């Protein structure tokens, strides 16, 4: 075997790092270069942001409510609807009527929430009403068995669930409204 000459050693000294770079091999760990960017995560592994949800109801009402009072909480959709005939019933529940005022298109999804409070303004529990157009009936002027959300609006009942006492008042909010 022939000994390495200075020229052969120089050529090998250039070829070995070049081959390592071409094949993606590296003698360095990530700790050697803390400024290097981290490898990107795959799209499948990326977490989607958490869905937005309505804020929790206030633990107390201030000022304390009048007996039977139903307040409307300002929110992103309150300027697009009219809530009328709001009543706190003995069941207990909040009943009323919602009409879309922003346009004449049908509502595809609507969610109303009620927070129930005692006479001192302390939160007792909540209730929810959900409306959703479904399937083929939701498109065009097809037959629809349920209430239509365009034009005359929708009558609703927000039944109270798991209350910690007898409600004296309620606050209604609109966390979801989707029009065509």
Give an overview of the whole structure.
The chain is mostly beta strands and 180 residues long. 10% of the residues lie in helices and 33% in strands. It has one helix at 6-23, and strands at residues 69-72, 81-89, 93-100, 107-117, 123-132, 154-159, 169-179. Strands 1-7-4-5 form a four-stranded mixed sheet, with no helix packed on it. β2 (81-89) and β3 form a beta hairpin. The model is unreliable at 7-12, 38-51 and 136-150 (pLDDT under 50).
Brief rundown of the structure:
With about 180 residues, this protein is mainly beta. The chain contains one helix and seven strands; from the N terminus they run αβββββββ.
Measured distance between first and last alpha carbons? 83 Å
Number of helices: 1
Low-confidence stretches: 7-12, 38-51, 136-150
Mean pLDDT: 74
Order of helices and strands: HEEEEEEE
Strand segment count: 7
What class, by secondary structure content?
mainly beta
Largest sheet composition:
4 strands, mixed
Approximately what portion of the residues adopt beta-strand conformation?
Answer: 25-35%
Tell me the radius of gyration.
Answer: 32 Å
Shape: elongated
Task: Tell me the helix content.
Answer: 10-25%
Strand order of the largest sheet: 1-7-4-5
Walk me through the topology.
Layout: H1 6-23, E1 69-72, E2 81-89, E3 93-100, E4 107-117, E5 123-132, E6 154-159, E7 169-179
Parallel strand pairs: 1-7
Antiparallel strand pairs: 2-3, 3-6, 4-5, 4-7
Characteristics:
180 residues; mainly beta; four-stranded mixed sheet; three-stranded antiparallel sheet; 1 helix
């Amino acid at each position: 075997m022939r000994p390495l000459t200075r020229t052969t050693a120089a050529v090998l000294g250039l070829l070995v790092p070049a081959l390592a770079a071409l094949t993606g091999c590296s003698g360095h760990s990530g700790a050697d270069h803390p400024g290097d960017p981290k490898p990107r995560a795959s799209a499948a592994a990326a977490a989607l942001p958490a869905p937005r949800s309505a804020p929790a109801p206030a633990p107390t009402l201030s000022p304390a409510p009048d007996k039977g009072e139903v307040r409307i909480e300002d929110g992103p959709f309150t300027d697009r609807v009219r809530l009328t005939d709001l009543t706190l019933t003995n069941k207990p529940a909040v009943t009323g009527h919602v009409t879309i005022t922003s346009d004449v298109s049908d509502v595809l999804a609507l969610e109303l929430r009620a927070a129930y409070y005692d006479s001192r303004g302390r939160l007792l529990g909540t209730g929810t009403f959900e409306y959703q157009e479904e399937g083929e009936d939701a498109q065009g002027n097809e037959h629809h068995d349920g209430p239509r959300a365009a034009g005359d609006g929708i009558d609703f009942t927000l039944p109270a669930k798991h209350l910690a006492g007898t409600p004296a008042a309620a606050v209604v909010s609109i966390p979801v409204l989707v029009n065509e």
